[in-house]
TrEMBL record:
<dbReference type="InterPro" id="IPR050060">
    <property type="entry name" value="Phosphoglucosamine_mutase"/>
</dbReference>
<keyword id="KW-0479">Metal-binding</keyword>
<dbReference type="InterPro" id="IPR005846">
    <property type="entry name" value="A-D-PHexomutase_a/b/a-III"/>
</dbReference>
<dbReference type="GO" id="GO:0005975">
    <property type="term" value="P:carbohydrate metabolic process"/>
</dbReference>
<protein>
    <submittedName>
        <fullName>Phosphomannomutase/phosphoglucomutase</fullName>
        <ecNumber>5.4.2.2</ecNumber>
    </submittedName>
</protein>
<feature type="domain" description="Alpha-D-phosphohexomutase alpha/beta/alpha">
    <location>
        <begin position="270"/>
        <end position="376"/>
    </location>
</feature>
<dbReference type="InterPro" id="IPR016066">
    <property type="entry name" value="A-D-PHexomutase_CS"/>
</dbReference>
<dbReference type="InterPro" id="IPR005844">
    <property type="entry name" value="A-D-PHexomutase_a/b/a-I"/>
</dbReference>
<dbReference type="InterPro" id="IPR016055">
    <property type="entry name" value="A-D-PHexomutase_a/b/a-I/II/III"/>
</dbReference>
<dbReference type="GO" id="GO:0009252">
    <property type="term" value="P:peptidoglycan biosynthetic process"/>
</dbReference>
<dbReference type="Pfam" id="PF02879">
    <property type="entry name" value="PGM_PMM_II"/>
</dbReference>
<dbReference type="GO" id="GO:0006048">
    <property type="term" value="P:UDP-N-acetylglucosamine biosynthetic process"/>
</dbReference>
<feature type="domain" description="Alpha-D-phosphohexomutase C-terminal">
    <location>
        <begin position="400"/>
        <end position="454"/>
    </location>
</feature>
<dbReference type="InterPro" id="IPR005843">
    <property type="entry name" value="A-D-PHexomutase_C"/>
</dbReference>
<dbReference type="GO" id="GO:0004614">
    <property type="term" value="F:phosphoglucomutase activity"/>
</dbReference>
<dbReference type="Pfam" id="PF02880">
    <property type="entry name" value="PGM_PMM_III"/>
</dbReference>
<dbReference type="Pfam" id="PF02878">
    <property type="entry name" value="PGM_PMM_I"/>
</dbReference>
Amino acid sequence: MTLIKSISGIRGTIGGKVGDNLTPVDAVKFASAYGTFLKKTIKKDKLKVVIGRDARISGPMIHNLVMNTLLGLGIDVIDLGLSTTPTVEIAVPMEAADGGIILTASHNPKQWNALKLLNAKGEFLSGKEGELILEIAESEAFDFSDVDSLGEITVNDAYMDIHIDEVLELPLVDAEAVAKRKFKVVVDGVNSSGGIIIPKLLEQMGVECVKLYCEPNGHFPHNPEPLKEHLGDICKLVVDEKADFGIVVDPDVDRLAFISNDGEMFGEEYTLVACADYVLSKTPGNTVSNMSSSRALRDITNKHNGSYQASAVGEVNVVELMKKTNAIIGGEGNGGIIYPESHYGRDSLVGVALFLTHLANLDMTVAELRASYPQYYMSKNKIELTPQIDVDAILVAMTEKYKNEEINTIDGVKIDFAENWVHLRKSNTEPIIRIYTEAGTQAEADKLALRIIDEIKAVAGL
């Protein structure tokens, strides 16, 4: 069992001992630290925080603990109930709130839960803010309110519908064009809140929706990370139903994967590529993804005469670089679409609506669309090292070895070769180097990974 404290929040498994797992005591402690942080940094008589959760079994328990902790600090709560990460993100500024908390462990299995923390813009906190919250939690320097100053709860369960309306109002979303195509789509909602909100969006766009695992009971029918090895059921159902494609989201609906009409994976990396292709065709501009994402986004951006840049891994880093470069779309290769016209957060609803509109404007199947994009294949590996080995020294040595290539060291070491690339990153919590490679074929990506692994082992004396 595990408890992970980081600058982006607290995540852990339910049950067990205090400090080792996400117990009720740990949930209260971290919620107290977040509320105390808001009171220290925002000078207002009354603060307000938006809270929503995914459909995890532990959700109602953690939800009530967190809400009532904030009330004890004198903070008002807008309770969205069952919701999604992007829904909470758009609700925070709409409610003029001072922050937000999403209770979700994202793609982790059902025994996990987490508190994901937002600022007043509905965006994830900065690293510095996260560190301050961790310090407050460690010190337990909490000052709760007296009985006459407790916070109040306002329930608002309309935000999933509000979110859908906001997406449909985006200028590049054309529900009428989509409805004319009479698409048929299978949706795997992994028995969480995506099973409610994605079918609702599709129905309002005139799409026939075949539901698979859309009962929000928190009993995930498969590993909730939307990877090929977990998605056999929807791949088969898309073919059996003769559907145009399939949609898969994770429990909190910020990661989006498509299944092509032939039952094959469209590819998580290509969710962003396809949406960016459409957006750039209508509104030329710049794009951003993280350094471990596919080169295909760069190629598509160049095709539309835009400029592409890569950020350090992590949504907050992608958003920061998007703002600096005025990027009109960006995200991460794990199926996360960030479209500032809506908000600065990964949003599967935005991705679905843009993708459907893109497809409605084309005379091709989803499989044909995928085949039209640059073909890249990735290999993801890791090397476990002994604690005595200096990982930083290894990365420096690899940088020196390939100094004549295009090198980026903002997040580990990324080496861009003419036909492929490799990204080396160390873990913050264990002596591991992660090795991501991408090339024109799977065999080439695997071969490059093996070569780099051998070179790292030689440097490390393994």
